[in-house]
Hints:
Two copies of one chain form a homodimer.
Chain A lengths: L5 E6 L8 H9 L4 E6 L14 H6 L4 E4 L13 H9 L3 E4 L9 H10 L3 E3 L18 E7 L6 H14 L3 E5 L3 H7 L13 H8 L7 E5 L11 H11 L3 E6 L17 H15 L4 E7 L6 H15 L3 E2 L1 H4 L2 H8 L3
Parallel strand pairs in A: 1-2, 1-3, 3-4, 4-5, 6-8, 6-9, 7-8, 9-10, 10-11
Amino acid sequence: MIRKPYLLFLGDAPDQLAAKVAQGIKDWRPECVTGQIRLEGCQAEMGLQDLTVQKAVEMGAKTMVIGVANRGGIISPQWKPTLLAALSSGLDLASGLHNYLGDEPDLVQAAKEHGRQLIDVRKAYGTMPIANGQKRTGKRCLAVGTDVSIGKMYTTLAIHRELQSRGKKSTFRATGQTGILIEGQGVPLDAIVADFMAGSIEQLTPDNDSDHWDIVEGQGSLFHASYSGVTLALVHGSQPDALVLCHDPTRTEMRGLPGYQLPSLDYLHEIALKLAQVVNPQCQVIGVAINSSKMSTEDATAYLQKTEDQLQIPVTDPYRFGVTALVDSLLNIP
Amino acid sequence: MIRKPYLLFLGDAPDQLAAKVAQGIKDWRPECVTGQIRLEGCQAEMGLQDLTVQKAVEMGAKTMVIGVANRGGIISPQWKPTLLAALSSGLDLASGLHNYLGDEPDLVQAAKEHGRQLIDVRKAYGTMPIANGQKRTGKRCLAVGTDVSIGKMYTTLAIHRELQSRGKKSTFRATGQTGILIEGQGVPLDAIVADFMAGSIEQLTPDNDSDHWDIVEGQGSLFHASYSGVTLALVHGSQPDALVLCHDPTRTEMRGLPGYQLPSLDYLHEIALKLAQVVNPQCQVIGVAINSSKMSTEDATAYLQKTEDQLQIPVTDPYRFGVTALVDSLLNIP
């Protein structure tokens, strides 16, 4: 559990994209952010107040989140004075970088001295159970994709937000680094030991009110040779009542797998549903989220209509057109 | 890599079943075993020469393998004098227990002192790559089951042995603790961090001669809610040319999952093949291995015939009737 509100550390980000973790937090949890802190040469900008560590603490900030990734995901020596100042001023530090805060002796020493926490969200903390497959109360919706990095997190965050705005009970269940930083908690599924993957997801999505929805962030793809095992553990651990399919029609091959074709939406529908029904025979596919960012509005609109006619379920681009239809479909599940 | 030959440590095994790891090694690699060593009260018996540590060393033994599991999988204090004697006499120690040899300070100290190795085959050693999905040379056969603990290791060991006896090129690729102790090397897949599961299997089954078969030990089941992710990583990492389906017709529910039905062989055939074809479109199901240990010979024979008529591929019980038909079918793959 990461304490909020956050101070977003943008460091010396060379461009806006390098600060996409900060952007995600600012977009999805603006109410949990006090401001940004930027070093000399920073080219990223969140449209937030520029703060010092001291000022952020006065405004109530509890954790400084590393919202930037540099090449290699390392903790830059240029950042160290600010990270150390945050710890000595009473802030925890949280990071999704490949290199761990907890492996930096000076940070460990300062955290200990000032009674602060270093939270590496790529690291699995605590013990995990082996999945037992038992039926849990409450409802769960999971995003699955024809490929990795195709908009699953965005889609689930948007569905959660829409449910909240309609006054429905829901929780966003983060399964990856950025999602965990946004939500403040979750399971870094790709860092879990194989035997405990599904169990960690059962633990993340426990018994709940019968009208409560866990909106579970997807990971990987059942069709991606590198990460498919992670995805199937998520399908079986989350025991979904509803699946949302995610797809980018402009992608010509699987990310990181030259020569591999993406499956069709039809085929993803068939395979994902069959696998989900192993743990929940009532599971349904409630709609499709298209990432049409590389298409013109006209092409996107035509594609969505064509796909909806073909699959006979709601099809939208959550970023462009919202998720009203997906949430309508979700709430139709008895 | 565990050095052979082995001395099999049976400890104070309360019955034969408690020494099933030793039994597996003795059954499948008798040429790699110098003898057994038993403590006061041991009720297990491998039909091997009873040796002292000293005698085993004289006979050329390189590693003493813990071939027994007691309740809880712990390293018993009663075993310690013998384990320490093995180390001081020049033997390595290898274990598949849940508790690690490497967590016992007295063993660690003795191993260091005598320059010996402690090998915990449940532990992942070294760094693992992320799978790249690239097509590799040589051929691979993988066992997949309708459930866990259904005979996949036995089936693959039998296929490997039959290939060897026909003078064909093959390697048994172990993916679980007992398999690793039998073969002397392998990947403990359920102990690998999620992101690296498929990559560890690609590394285990590298490029090879075009007429060489890797016979890959299966793990878990695509239909088992606790372990399915491990299985799919294995399917995609091993890039199989051939699948063997494993099934026990007498099992009424999935192991450890009350209320869960096993899938039919037809359904496993369909789903496993579709998933395998993501990485190898030429993959085929070459036959079925039935565990008929709880059936009469008559019932078993009738069941095999009926299943063969239905699926139109070879169906056998490897233990009762051998794997000739499976290997014939395997070698038909161009």
